[in-house]
Amino acid sequence: MERGNGEKLLVALILGLVCLAGVAQVDAQGVVPPPPPPPPPPPSTPVGTDIVSLICATPGLSAFCNALATSRVSLELLQNVAVQRVTVFAANDAAFGNVRANIKACFGKEPIDVLSQVVAFHIATGGNYTAAELGAVYTLTTLHGMPLMMGRNVNGSPLIEGTASIVSPDVIHAVNATVHVIDDVLVPENLVRNIWEVCFGVPASSNTPVPPASTI
Fold this sequence. Notes:
By secondary structure, the chain is an alpha+beta fold.
């Protein structure tokens, strides 16, 4: 009986030494590392083929939605959003309402499709920038490779092409696309002469001065 108690004592002593050895090993290596942090949340769902329908479902963008479809720039937008990130500056209905009636009447006129060039000028490729991120951006490249100049309002908010302010930022934001609502229709300056030639018959070679894009 005493021998049994002795064996139990020996086992307990061995277990104690094992525990001490483990503590010594931890002390020698430093503090036990904390458990790994939880994995980051999954990224936002890419908008993919939903980008056009999401734009069209946004209140106040019916004119821009129609312009996307009529110009067929909607197809270019879908193709681009499938392979790269884009930022869309969608002019609201009030902005389209301010465009001259005679300019609107000529938007789809040949030999150049004025509307497609105007609509494409509202879509920048190479990044899906939030309104906050646009504060550090000065030039973007549009769907047709034209530069889109970014300035600042007095309050520091983005000013696009010197005329358009963002009135509803980040109305759509995903990993591959961001959409902002703006208060003016963007027209590239190098398109103005073509507009006057196609819409009003003023030859490109004419010395007749044309108004700036901001007046269209």
